[in-house]
Amino acid sequence: MKATVVKVGGSLSLYPEKLKTLCLKISEISKEQKLIVVPGGGEFADVVRSLDKSFNLSCSTSHGMAILGMDQYGMLLSDLMPGSITTHKLEEIKYFFDLNKLPIFLPSHLLLREDPLENSWAVTSDSIAVYIAGRLQVNKVLLVTDVDGIYNRDPKTFSEEKLINNLSASELLAMNKRTSVDNALPKLLLKTPIDCFVVNGLFPERIKLVLAGQDSIYTLIKG
Q: CA-based Rg of the chain, rounded to a whole angstrom?
């Protein structure tokens, strides 16, 4: 399918006005290009993390609850994106494209039924977005977050760190640490020929530039 999966990170909900602007921009772009939005987990997943610490939940339970949190965030995003529509079914996406709708995929039905990914906190909406792209045979994913891309160290802690503009999935795996993407992502990308861009959603114009193949600020992970 000639389209792009756009994962809108849950961390962006901490910036309400910025998130509203981002959602309007994605909706605008979707009138010219086929986009499939996959929601992050954000504060909904954070509640599950807190409950997991308190009750020592099983991996399958916390994984399932976090995925349900993605559904909730997806419903929130749909309220902010004009012309969007939520769906649980991959086969409906082409139908919604034909109706000039922006599909927001809510993953719980698919993932809880098939359980294709590791049940752990190493798997987040990053890996889920790439998995969904693979199922749809889409070869480009944008992971839209609140940082400019991938750094050697956390830029929120170490202000002098430099952005990594390009790296392969194997190079990301060799870093062997949580960056601005989840730990399971590089292993998944090694199995799936997908180009994965990490881009800052606080600057929505960058998304348009990436989709147009123009220079911008991002990290490209080659699958």
A: 16
